[in-house]
């Protein structure tokens, strides 16, 4: 099994907070993006790879391919940041046997069908249910925009749902 040092749901994927805060805090060597649509979007792939620090490898795979990749034996000093846009991708990885002790929820923007829970997190009823299923499996899930913030347990964020 490869060494996942951070599993994060963030619909912006690679952006300033990832590059300046999370990459430094976690000392990652690889950013793995698991996204079924992005594997067929070479333009956005180039943009994301250009946004990453030059010493960090960016790999973009479908969710299924990412699951297979993460279950392989990793390199000795490998440190992976796993990014998905949505909780269902993270749940699929967990269902496929990928192990993570904790998932950090970053930004999920407001769009049709989603309800706002704070200024950075909006989720549909299905997405909330998905995150609750992840937590029910025993995986710690917290909202934390940047490492210096105090994490908020997902159950507290979605109390009313």
Descriptive account of the structure:
There is one protein chain. This protein is α/β, with parallel strands linked by helices and 161 residues long. Helix content is 34%, strand content 22%. It has six helices and nine strands. The chain has a seven-stranded mixed beta sheet, with helices on both faces. The chain has a two-stranded antiparallel sheet with strand order 6-7. Helix 3 crosses helix 4 and helix 4 runs parallel beside helix 5 (125-136). The termini are far apart. The model has no long low-confidence stretch (mean pLDDT 94).
Provide key terms for this protein.
22% strand; two-stranded antiparallel ribbon; globular; 6 helices; 161 residues; alpha/beta
Work out the number of β strands: 9
What kind of sheet is the major sheet? 7 strands, mixed
How would you describe the oligomerization state of the chains in this entry? single chain
Give the DSSP E fraction (strand runs of 2 or more residues). 15-25%
Q: What share of the residues lie within helices?
A: 25-40%
Please give the radius of gyration in angstroms: 15 Å
Shape: globular
Give the SSE map:
Layout: E1 4-9, H1 16-26, E2 30-34, H2 42-51, E3 57-61, H3 63-71, E4 80-84, H4 87-95, E5 102-105, E6 115-116, E7 122-123, H5 125-136, E8 140-143, E9 152-153, H6 154-157
């Amino acid at each position: 099994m490869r060494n996942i040092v951070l599993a994060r749901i963030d619909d912006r994927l690679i952006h300033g907070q990832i590059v300046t805060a999370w990459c430094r805090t976690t000392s990652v060597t690889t950013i793995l993006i698991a996204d079924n649509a992005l594997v067929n979007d070479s333009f956005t792939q180039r943009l994301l790879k250009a946004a990453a620090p030059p010493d960090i490898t960016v790999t973009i795979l479908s969710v299924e391919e990412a699951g297979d990749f993460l279950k392989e034996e990793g390199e000795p000093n490998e440190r992976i940041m796993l990014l998905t846009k949505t909780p269902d991708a993270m749940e699929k990885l967990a269902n496929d046997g990928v192990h993570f002790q904790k998932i950090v929820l970053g930004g999920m923007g407001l769009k049709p069908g989603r309800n706002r829970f704070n200024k950075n997190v909006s989720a549909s009823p299905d997405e909330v249910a998905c995150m609750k299923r992840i937590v029910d499996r025993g995986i710690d899930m917290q909202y934390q925009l940047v490492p210096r913030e105090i994490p908020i347990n997902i159950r507290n964020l979605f109390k009313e749902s």
